[in-house]
Amino acid sequence: MAATAANFHTFLAILLLLIPIAAKGNSIFPPFIDNICEEVQCGKGTCEANQSYPFSFRCNCENGWKRTRLESEQDLEYLPCIIPDCSLDYSCMPAASPLPPVPYNISFFDPCYWIYCGEGTCTKNKTYTHTCQCNSGSSNLLNISAFPCYNDCAIGSDCQRLGIQTSRSTSSPSSNNNNDNNQATSFLPGEFTWITILLISAIMAFYK
């Protein structure tokens, strides 16, 4: 009976600690924030960690790359930089699906909800990354599986300045060896995951 009471008090103490943390969004795990960019892949961009950003990071795109086909990406800075800012002729490809609206609940996230795979199908991976499986006749940009699939007819000649080659190009194609290491991560869970782990641990201690 005494052990049960002690476990209950432990559970209650941890619960009271977690409630204000969850409400205020303050981090008690600075090492996680410091290391978040080691887990995030931003495509043709660099990761910047900051608690003020959605999901505690954002992707800063290199010149010539963007995150989506939208004109404004202000609310989508956590997405990887996989869309080339060069001449793309979408008229020779099947019409793309309309872009989804921004969710009301920002905590909602599925990489394939946002990612444009062109002539391919998006598959969410276990590590919060995605791959674009290309249809016949198309291929991933830069031969990286996280990048969208395009037909050669859609890629303008000015895209070569970004390293994008087609069968019409005289340059040799990029290597496929880095496919698995270049999957773009669009989301990594932060404080909520750690809060959940602590809460489950407390419940297990209570019922021990």
Automatic annotation (TrEMBL):
Protein's UniProt keywords contain Signal: yes
Residues of the signal peptide: 1-25
Domain of life: Eukaryota
Keywords from the named record: Signal
Protein name: Uncharacterized protein
Organism, scientific name: Fraxinus pennsylvanica
